[in-house]
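Trying the structure run again after the queue cleared.
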Amino acid sequence: MKRTFNPWFFVILIILGVVVFNQFNARPPGSEISYSTFTNLVEGGKVAEVVIEQNTIRGELKAETQVDEDGQTRAIRSFQVTTVEDPTLIPLLQENGVSLEGRVPSPWPGLLFSFLPIVILIGFFWFVFMRAQGGPSQVMQFGQSKAKTYGRENKVKTTFDDVAGHEEAKQELKEVVDFLKNPQKYLRIGAEIPKGMLLVGPPGTGKTLLARAVAGEAGVPFLTVSASEFMEMFVGVGASRVRNLFEEARKASPAIIFIDELDSIGRRRGAGIGGGHDEREQTLNQILSEMDGFEKDTSVIIIAATNRPDILDPALLRPGRFDRQVTIGLPTQREREQVLRVHVRNKPIADDVNLERLASATPMFSGADLENLTNEAALIAARTGKQLISWTDFNEALDRIVLGLRRGSLVPSDKERQILAFHEAGHAVAFASQPDLGHIRKVTIMPRGGAGGFMAPLSKEEMFFSRERFQQQLVVAFGGRVAEKKLTGTISSGASNDLKQATDMAKQMVFDLGMGGEEFVAWGSDQGPVFLGGEISRRKDFSEETARELEGEVNKILEAAYSATETVISNNWVAVEGVARALLERETIEGTLIEKAFERAREGMSADEITRMIVAEVDAAERRMAADAQRAAEADRQRRAERPAPTIDPRPASEGPRS
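Done. Tokens:
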């Protein structure tokens, strides 16, 4: 183990050495007496010797003597006196035979204690400075770029084949690759490739991965740096690092510079209370100058990534700098399926895993979220000792990510479980009655996170939502409250989140989408999109009378949806009752069984028959799952048995190989 030298240990040793040296070299101070008492003792012949040092006289008496001073009597043998201006002192001492010695005080203690605090402060700041710069070897290199360079020796191996989805973005970036490979093709005709490309999108959508794929496809040096690494506590260091970064890129040209999290230094200059930030603005000015200053260099391409393009300085986005913005949005359902195939290609997947169904169950998931989902499913399978990752593991992983961990300590009463079962059954049957909404993934009454139970849909992915689509979603939202009320004759707090979602949806219909009484105006709601430059809040720009009219339209939509939900639940109460009883027995039901139960109820099957059918299907699925797990375990044991045993050398470990 390598030991590092700590300079503070050396400083402490010096201080302790000085203290110990002074303690051993200093004579005992003796009793403090007045100058008059001292002269009396000299005249009386009682003083044996004295030592005169600057402002102090130290001495020894011939024998212990009683001294009266300030009304007190003390017995002293050694003494100490503060000197005064007295020209008769030396003759007096000589007349009385006192041994006299004069000493010049050492200047080192005074100098040491005068300059030691300054030395300690300098050492402290030097130590902090070295730690901040990464050690002594980096002290004089704080103006150098911290970019990681991938060249011919450690070239980037990522290609566009490793990036699932984002076909439009990849097509845009392939033009950059083609220019880096064949620049004369564009220069002959007078075309100039964009100097910079800005990748814009939410976190986790693959912006950095796409930049690496461009470098891997082009086969050119790739310099990557986070924008926050330009910033330092010293003004001017960031600009120096930017200059050094572009110098390195020009030396290795053609090359790609990738700046991640550009918004950390590319914020609008002069924004905010109290003006801007000197270091950040100098760094930004240097980037602007390097990208489109006096030097024209088309062999270095800058790719930057950010999820906050709304706060970037306009000078960054003008032509000649970041000419193009490529939006890397959340993947569509088809792209999510492709991303899932990439992340499961090295994982053993069971036959019951349907990636298309899993992609439809993960709306608004980014690529990073999907990678986390597959990894979480693998962890769950390994924790239970499985050899294959099944659909149940993906189901559990998805529920854990979206809702949280199971709350095994929360045990509802029998009455609460019954209300919860009918509540979730109401949601499920209301959803099944609206075929245009899609399919159901599962229904459960097992508490998880902040929810007592939930119904997980597999929604269809559409570009536009009609008014009828919103009304159908409102029916599903009210399904739990209506079923609960029909069972108990009263209402509870269990539907609080459903009511909030329904109210927000109705407000969006009226305020934003013109789906209320006036379909030609959008007044704007209180909440707006935060991403891609939207405002967090909007100003209310209509009168109180208009506000009352809009609130009335919202109430009309909610009342109509609630009335339609009551009709749906009443007409399909047999299905609700059958599903609820099955939930009380098995707690979790797959969505395909809910849809099957809904159809059987319409064909005239009773609630008891529906319950028995669902329970039998759930039990059969569990038996199949257990059999599959047993077969997988048996196959694994067989593979282990057929594997040849390792050869063991009988010689001691210390004995070398024999020729």
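Residues 109 and 115 are 10 Å apart (CA to CA). Worth checking whether this holds up in the mutant runs.
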